[in-house]
Amino acid sequence: MKHAAFTLAGVALSLSLVWTSAQAEALRVAADPVPHAEILNYIKKIDPKLDLKVVELTNGANANELLANGDVDANYFQHVPYLKDQEKALGKTFAVAATVHIEPLGIYSHKYKDFKSLPNNAKVAVPNNATNLSRALFLLQAQGLIKLDSKFTDPATTLATPKDIVQNPKHLQILEIESPQIPRSLDDVDLAVINGNYALEAGLSPAKDALGLESAKHNPYANILVTNPQLANDPRIKELAKDLTSPQVAEFIRKQYNGSVIPVAPQS
């Protein structure tokens, strides 16, 4: 009995040491450079006891594949509709740890100052991934440039494609391009629908430069902190989630991005 008791005590101590060791390891979080990595680097300053290792996404790296393979512990770059699409594609289930901010999708042009000036057969660059393509089409519809089939009512649950356009009075040519490349296409197209983070990286101010901008109200595309289910209760994940949704970080987002990134957390 004594031997069994010592054995159980040894196992408990071993598990405790493993858990303590895991807590001491740096939390690896994959993030887009702007604004996600910037926000995480701000958290490193205000919460130094949380050992964060920010892995900036470059060269088209898939942060959900990195997470699924265990190369990172969490990622912060995407919204829920995109995550759901990725879960289907990868055959994986992830866990949402925090809902942080909204980056309104915007329509930009280097050639025109308003939609009235837009000529017939204008070229419009849109994201080529399913969720953001649909999101772009809903935004073009909101600006009166196209009309989608009436069955497309909820942008978060019904994914539209160019085939679902039923009215296109200016005969817009919809060009599907990889999201990070769209800002570079601005001189080659008439309009470009650009995700907020890529607009910021390109030196655009969505709140000032966009000809049309998504409404933040009831927006289903809030950016989230995502992890694997087995890490959902990890104290480091919980600490980061608490920081990301804190009034202090919300205030940083408001001041840093002037309406181009909008915190979901309440004002302090």
UniProtKB/TrEMBL annotation:
InterPro entries reported in the protein's UniProt record: Lipoprotein_NlpA
Out of the domains of life, which is the source?
Answer: Bacteria
Q: What is its main location?
A: membrane
* Membrane topology, record value: Lipid-anchor
Q: Which Pfam families match?
A: Lipoprotein_9
Q: Where in the cell is it found?
A: Membrane
Q: Mind telling me which GO cellular component terms the entry cites?
A: membrane
Signal peptide residues are: 1-24
Q: Keywords on this record?
A: Lipoprotein, Membrane, Palmitate, Signal
| Family that this chain belongs to | Belongs to the nlpA lipoprotein family.
Q: State the name under which the record lists this protein.
A: Lipoprotein
